[in-house]
Amino acid sequence: MLFAIDVGNTNITVGLFDGEKLVKQFRMVTSTKRTSDEYGVFFGEWLDVNGFQMSDITDVAISSVVPDVNHSLTSSIIKYFDVQPLVVAPGTKTGIRVATSNPRELGADRLVDAVAAYEMYGGPVIVVDFGTATTHDLVLADGTFTAGVTSPGIRLAAHALWQGTAKLPEVEIRKVDTIMGKDTVSSMQAGIYYGYIGQTEYIIRKLKEESGLSDIKVVATGGLGKMISEATDAIDIYDPELTLHGLRIIYDKQEKK
User: Fold this and answer.
1) What span, in angstroms and rounded, lies between the C-alpha atoms of 26 and 28?
2) CATH number of this structure's domain 2-87, picked from the four choices 3.30.40.10, 3.40.190.10, 3.40.50.300, 3.30.420.40
3) Of these residues, 6, 59, 109, 239, which one is catalytic?
4) What is the pLDDT of residue 91?
5) For the whole model, what pTM was predicted?
6) Which residue ranges in the chain fall short of pLDDT 50?
7) Which residues of the chain does CATH 3.30.420.40 include?
8) For residue 178, how many other CB atoms are within 10 A of its CB?
9) What span, in angstroms and rounded, lies between the C-alpha atoms of 54 and 253?
10) Known catalytic residue: 109?
11) Cα(48)–Cα(57) distance, rounded to whole angstroms?
């Protein structure tokens, strides 16, 4: 079985695959202070609770945008699973050609999402990930990653709003039925929610316009992506498991020894 691990700035998401089927997944808060033993014990207990054993894991694939986590995490995989993990990095076979000015600076999470969207839904495709940062990436019909847009994520922007002001309170980020805010909380919620819908629609429209590709599929993922996807016709597909499937696809592309 394949253990797919996506290390994000906010959460670590783990998926357990039996072939192409995602059978279990969980999330844990990203922390740079965990030791390899803490990771190993946690993974072992989680597998046991769900009826699996560490010996069931034959392959591990990791995508990480938090370098300080990588050493402890990979060490735990080697120590507790006796498996050398595949860590997605520049040079990893993905089937995607990165045609940006500096391909090596592209985040592993964006590359993995691009692979999944292209392989599962075809190209050209715009991949939108509503994570700690919100990213919009364009992959052409031939599998070329050609452009990307990066903006603050919904939670990050909302946090800045109440942290950077003296009187605005912390509010729940949620769908609201009207943009007509009647008090401070509802006005903030409307601004966050409808502001992100507007941003999403505009960026997608501009990517289509400047690429000259009007007939292009838009695939979204990420924690708050469902809330935004349901509110706009600009997004065709919401796939919350996109990144994990991307790790599976990339692992399958590697030449097995």
Assistant:
1) 7
2) 3.30.420.40
3) 109
4) 82
5) 0.91
6) 257
7) 2-87, 97-247
8) 9
9) 24
10) yes
11) 12
